[in-house]
């Protein structure tokens, strides 16, 4: 199933009529976004071919961040049990936006449970961010203006849930701009990098044993050095 292009209203302060006034630029923007969506799907399909521990789903894209948006959800499984989740959004605005280096922006999020000792490690943020940048360096090296946060999550039960043990988690939220001049490779690579990030956070191997490593556009490449330790 192809992911749907999600048109959205003009941003605050803009005019919906003005967005539609010039049909040729609008058509051009739609064509560029269609190419990027096809690359997103290609990345999803490449990961699906070699990993059965990551499961993709279409996910409703937010409607007010950019004129065009599409999103994916991803769930990681370890020993048949859910070990982590993620979301990825691809935004496109032919006029660009403040802080962007081009006309596209990728927004990614992952969450995974981790052992209490790891959650308390002062280097968790630095290590977690390196999982992302290492994966981007491998799969989508043209990325620009990266930004994000790493959060330690502690969940405690009270009342009828007081007997449940505390749970500790890792959450990373990030965004970056893929290189417009290499948009197909960069968007496809963004999906591969996001998948590697979730695999690392969830304590899965960088690549399942017996499968070929994925480089840019699915070509054979190095496996990421980042591996998960101390995950539940």
Descriptive account of the structure:
- By secondary structure, the protein is of the alpha+beta class.
- It has one domain.
- Helices cover 31% and strands 28% of the residues.
- The protein contains 5 helices and 7 strands.
- The protein has helices at 16-21, 23-50, 116-119, 124-139, 183-201; strands at residues 6-7, 54-59, 68-78, 81-92, 104-114, 144-155, 167-177.
- Strands 1, 2, 3, 4, 5, 6 and 7 form a 7-stranded antiparallel β-sheet that branches.
- β3 and β4 (81-92) form a beta hairpin.
- The longest helix has 28 residues, at 23-50.
- The two termini are 33 Å apart.
Shape: globular
* SS summary, helix count: 5
Order of helices and strands: EHHEEEEHHEEH
Helix content: 25-40%
Q: Tell me the fraction of residues in β-strands, as a range.
A: 25-35%
Question: What value does the Rg take, in angstroms?
Answer: 19 Å
Measured distance between first and last alpha carbons: 33 Å
Poorly predicted residue ranges: 1-24, 218-232
- Average pLDDT works out at 81
Q: What is the domain tally? A: 1
Comma- or semicolon-separated keywords:
232 residues, disordered N terminus, globular, 7 strands, alpha+beta
Can I get a quick summary?
By secondary structure, the protein is α+β, with helices and mostly antiparallel strands.
Topology of helices and strands:
Elements: E1 6-7, H1 16-21, H2 23-50, E2 54-59, E3 68-78, E4 81-92, E5 104-114, H3 116-119, H4 124-139, E6 144-155, E7 167-177, H5 183-201
Antiparallel strand pairs: 1-3, 2-3, 3-4, 4-5, 5-7, 6-7
Helix pairs in contact: 2-5, 4-5
């Amino acid at each position: 199933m192809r992911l749907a292009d999600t048109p959205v209203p003009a941003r605050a302060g803009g005019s919906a009529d003005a967005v539609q006034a010039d049909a040729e630029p609008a058509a051009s923007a739609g064509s560029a976004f269609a190419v990027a969506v096809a690359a997103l799907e290609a990345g999803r399909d490449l990961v699906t071919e070699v990993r059965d521990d990551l499961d993709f789903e279409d996910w409703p894209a937010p409607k007010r961040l950019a004129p065009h948006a599409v999103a994916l959800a991803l769930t990681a499984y370890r020993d048949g049990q859910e070990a982590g989740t993620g979301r990825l959004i691809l935004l496109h605005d032919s006029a660009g936006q403040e802080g962007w280096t081009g006309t596209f922006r990728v927004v990614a999020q992952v969450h995974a449970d981790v052992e209490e000792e790891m959650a308390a490690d002062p280097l968790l943020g630095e290590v977690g961010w390196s999982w992302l940048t290492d994966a981007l360096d491998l799969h989508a090296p043209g990325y620009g203006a990266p930004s994000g946060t790493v959060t330690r999550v502690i969940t405690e039960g009270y009342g009828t849930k007081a007997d449940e043990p505390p749970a500790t988690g890792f959450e990373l939220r990030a965004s970056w701009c893929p290189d417009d001049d290499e948009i197909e490779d960069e968007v496809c690579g963004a999906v591969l990098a996001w998948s590697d990030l979730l695999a690392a956070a969830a304590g899965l191997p960088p690549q399942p044993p017996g499968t070929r490593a994925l480089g840019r556009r699915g070509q054979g490449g190095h496996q990421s050095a980042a591996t998960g330790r101390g995950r539940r």
